[in-house]
Amino acid sequence: MTTPQRGLEQPIIAEGLERVFGSGERAVRAVDGVDLSVERGEIFGFLGPNGAGKSTTVRMLTTLLRPTGGTARVAGFDVVKESDAVRRSIGVALQDAAIDPLMTGAELLHLQAILYGLPRGEHTQRVGDLLERVGLSAAGDRRVGTYSGGMRRRLDLALALIHEPTVLFLDEPTTGLDPMSRMALWDEIRRLNDDGTTVLLTTQYLEEADQLADRVAIIDHGRIVSRGRPADLKAGVGAPTLFIVVDPAQVESASAVLTAFGELRPTAEGTLGVGLVDGAAGVSAVVRALDDAGVQVQNLELKAPSLDDVFAEATGHRLEGAS
Question: Is the pTM of this model over 0.70?
Fold first, then answer.
């Protein structure tokens, strides 16, 4: 099945997208003026902590939630005025998708094929191909209630692909998976992209965005705070960060010492961080200066610039460990 999106250079475009829940003093602005443009054939990462507005944005782009402001077009169609056309053109795998545990994987795929109006003569071949593609051929006749978390996520992906969409939305597809299942799903996402599928991927995992995304947008409290290619964003941070743990009673003294070596950076509670201009060559000088000031270092670690550093510079707090 082909879709009207194939010729579009930007299959996902959002301008000033907003979503407000409630009204008056109790109103919550979950998405606050988001602008997005996703290029044809790329993997676009939408990175941020839980509650930042990632899933709400995806629900608006996939017509599951009506925007309260702004506009968006997906696969060439307005998400409000042409919502039916949008739904026919995209694949969606949501984190909280409901799947009937009493049906088998193959039965669910057959049902999805019927819902999308695929010719009946193509169902068996298409279902078999998808089960093989996501590594579920041997489990296709098992009830979904017996599937592991990783198997359910791979079935979610197969269901989203039944009508061969060229725009695919994946909402935190690896949340709760073990490392091996996560990497297997990464490989499948890469293969889909190699075949020409445009992917918008939401995630709270730094490594996932770094590994998969051609470009990322970092969102916090409903607003995009940074965007670009991961390598460019990390290069913009500059110096690596030296993380230091000291006794809580010596934090103030340690901070005073560290300011002589670079700019202090946001860190998790209980840790100090400084952008070390001299990199690894400057670590010994920092340790000597702390020792001269009577500060005892309990632990230190030098890390190259990461997307978490990009997030910290843009927001003043760390993404890792955010709830």
Answer: yes
